[in-house]
Amino acid sequence: MMMKSRSGGGANCKVERKTAEKYRRMHMKSLCDKLSSIIPKEHRTIAKDVLTQEDNFDQATSYIKTLRERIERLKQRKLLQTSRVRNDMTMRFPSPIVEVRHQDLNLEILLISDLNKRFMFREVVNVIEEEGAEVVNASFSIVGDKIYHTIHSQAVSSRIGLEASRVYKRLKDLIN
């Protein structure tokens, strides 16, 4: 009975693992270099040529946190400006205001009315449902002497769809 030697096959496998590991390390180094290149000079605390990999990760993490904070500040500023525009709009235009936005099978409805000019919210929902949509989400808020209603709806059937102009006309008739 003849026994096969395993040492020949094992050496080949070992070389393949070393080669795979070498390529993996090269790929990781390339990714780390790319990460380092994305961080702006103004954000660096250590010179780029002296950075260790750990320093590189720390600076990238810090930069990402800075970007997140900036995004939050910009979102807050946008929200503030949007609410100012909305308040300016309601002060300049007589109440009630009806806006209907249509995109694909979705319908977004914004109703702005005075506190003293109320309407039955149930009737608004009935109009939306009669026109072939179902209310997915509805909310309201009171700012000063105005009530803001936001209604998100979706077409019940994709074949039938929604006719935004018809919904707008019916809501305008209902509220006025």
Nutshell version of this structure?
The chain has 176 residues and is α+β, with helices and mostly antiparallel strands. Helix content is 53%, strand content 21%.
* Helix proportion range: 40-55%
**Global morphology:** elongated
Strand order in the sheet with the most strands: 1-2-4-3
Order of helices and strands: HHEEHEEH
The biggest beta sheet is recorded as: 4 strands, antiparallel
Total number of helical segments?
Answer: 4
Task: Determine Rg (CA atoms, Å).
Answer: 31 Å
**What's the average pLDDT?**
83
Structural class by sheet pairing and helices: alpha+beta
- Low-confidence segments: none
Proportion of strand residues: 15-25%
Total strands: 4
The span between the termini is: 101 Å
Describe the model:
The structure is a single chain. With 176 residues, the chain is an alpha+beta fold. Helix content is 53%, strand content 21%. It contains four helices and four strands. It has helices at residues 7-38, 53-92, 121-130, 164-175, and strands at residues 97-103, 106-114, 133-143, 146-155. Strands 1-2-4-3 form a four-stranded antiparallel sheet, covered by helices on one side. β3 and β4 (146-155) form a beta hairpin. It is elongated and about 85 Å long. The termini are far apart. The model has no long low-confidence stretch (mean pLDDT 83). Residues 57-84 form a coiled coil. GO terms for molecular function: DNA-binding transcription factor activity, RNA polymerase II-specific; protein dimerization activity; RNA polymerase II transcription regulatory region sequence-specific DNA binding. This is Transcription factor bHLH36. Residues 12-67 form the BHLH domain. Belongs to the bHLH protein family.
